[in-house]
Structures are given as structure tokens and as C-alpha cells.
Amino acid sequence: AQRVTQPEKLLSVFKGAPVELKCNYSYSGSPELFWYVQYSRQRLQLLLRHISRESIKGFTADLNKGETSFHLKKPFAQEEDSAMYYCALRGWGKFQFGAGTQVVVTP
Amino acid sequence: EADIYQTPRYLVIGTGKKITLECSQTMGHDKMYWYQQDPGMELHLIHYSYGVNSTEKGDLSSESTVSRIRTEHFPLTLESARPSHTSQYLCASSAYQGATEAFFGQGTRLTVV
């Protein structure tokens, strides 16, 4: 069975501080992992995918197969980063989402 | 423009009514999904489809049903709505190859009174 765990429901950080959102997964095969973001009153949208190894809006995420983790990081949080973040795994043709982490960036 | 559309955005309906939530995509995707999400909570997969005439139940048991007669259309039906069905319903689609991430619609917020 595939499972995605996001242990933090809420992260509150100050503007300019680093932020790290944790994501751990369990999957027997080779997973495809994604981070999605949902801003207030907007649809869920892709932030980044592990295959691309890209940085989007200053965010990066590294797949660590040994620790089965895909943590999302940003060195300097901005107020516009306040949103709900979901880690997702694509396996067996389906997408499994974590419970989500609410990020609040205060000035 | 390629997109995924859900209608209605909001629906308030009485108990016992039959409702259909519409989802259409112009992305050219074969795979489509329905998720149920309570505000600020996790997404639960309730139905998915690999293509025309293919439908499967998801991880969360749901009294709703779906159909996939056309590639671009994946409606969800509740034969008799109940207050326990009150939730947000998200439709998504994805491709088999290439960019394989899921694209989401705006969602339908359903309230059964």
C-alpha cells in the first residue's frame, strides 16, 4: 500500500526565516513524488516534482530514498508563501496525498 | 486554453435529491480522478478512471457513482443526497506519459441540508 505522511499540520514562521515541510512516504516501487500548493480561494496546483529537480518560487525538494522522504525547503520565507501544502505520491496509476501542512508566514 | 472545469462551484441542496457534479477537461488526458476534501483536510480518492468505459472505486468508500462515456467528461452522481455528503469535491486529470502530474479543477463545494 502507498502512504504519504506529513507530520506537521501547521507551521508558523517569520518572514525571512527558513521553512521546511516534512514528507515521508511508503511505497514498494519507484515513486513519483510531487508537492502541491493551495493558496486561499485558489485551486490546488503543482509546485514541483522530484523528477525535474527544479526550484520553484525558491522552494526545493530532494528525494531521499534511504529515508523515504521528500521534504520541501525554502531558505527565506515570504508572506506570499502562506498557503496549504500537500505532498503527493503517484503510484499504481493513482495519486495519494498527505494530510497537508498549513504554512503561515508572519511579517 | 487547456483546462479542467467543474460545475457548479457551489451547490446547496435538500436531503434526498439526486445531484450530478460535472467535470470536463480539455487537456487531452486519459486519466481522471475525483477526490473528496473537507476544508483544510487531506484529499481522499473516491473514484478514478483510466479512460473511456473504465471506472474504479478509490480508497475512500463513497455512495456516489461515476461514468466515463467520453474522454473529456467524468461526472459524479449522488442518487440521494444526505447531510453526510457535505464536502468539497475535486476533479483532476493526468497524462500517462510526459508531464504526469495531476491537474485540478476549482472544485465543487456541496452542502446538503
Summarize the structure in words.
The complex is a heterodimer of chains A (107) and B (113). By secondary structure, chain A is mostly beta strands. Chain A is built from no helices and eleven strands. Chain A has strands spanning 3-5, 10-14, 19-21, 24-26, 32-38, 45-49, 60-64, 69-74, 83-91, 94-97, 101-106. In chain A, the strands form three sheets. In chain A, strands 2, 5, 6, 9, 10 and 11 form a six-stranded mixed beta sheet that branches. In chain A, a hairpin with a 4-residue loop joins strand 7 (60-64) and strand 8 (69-74). Chain A is globular, with a radius of gyration of 13 Å. Chain A starts with a strand and ends with a strand. The model of chain A has no long low-confidence stretch (mean pLDDT 92). Chain B is built from no helices and eleven strands. Chain B has strands at residues 4-7, 10-13, 19-25, 31-37, 43-51, 54-57, 65-66, 76-78, 87-94, 103-104, 108-112. The interface between A and B is medium-sized, with 20 and 23 residues.
Element-level helix/strand string of chain A: EEEEEEEEEEE
> Would you tell me the structural class of the helices and strands of chain A?
mainly beta
Largest sheet of chain B: 7 strands, mixed
Average pLDDT of chain B, to the nearest integer? 93
Structural category of chain B is mainly beta
- Tell me the Rg of chain B in angstroms: 13 Å
Low-confidence stretches of chain B: none
Question: How much of the residues of chain A is beta strand, in percent?
Answer: over 45%
Terminal residue distance of chain B: 36 Å
Largest sheet of chain A: 6 strands, mixed
Mean pLDDT across every amino acid position of chain A: 92
Shape summary of chain A: globular
* Amount of helix of chain A: under 10%
Q: What is the largest interface, and how many residues per chain?
A: A-B, 20 and 23 residues
Discrete helix count of chain A:
0
Which overall shape of chain B is indicated by the principal axes computed on the Cα atoms?
globular
Helical content of chain B stands at: under 10%
Q: Percent of residues of chain B in beta strands?
A: over 45%
Distance between the termini of chain A: 41 Å
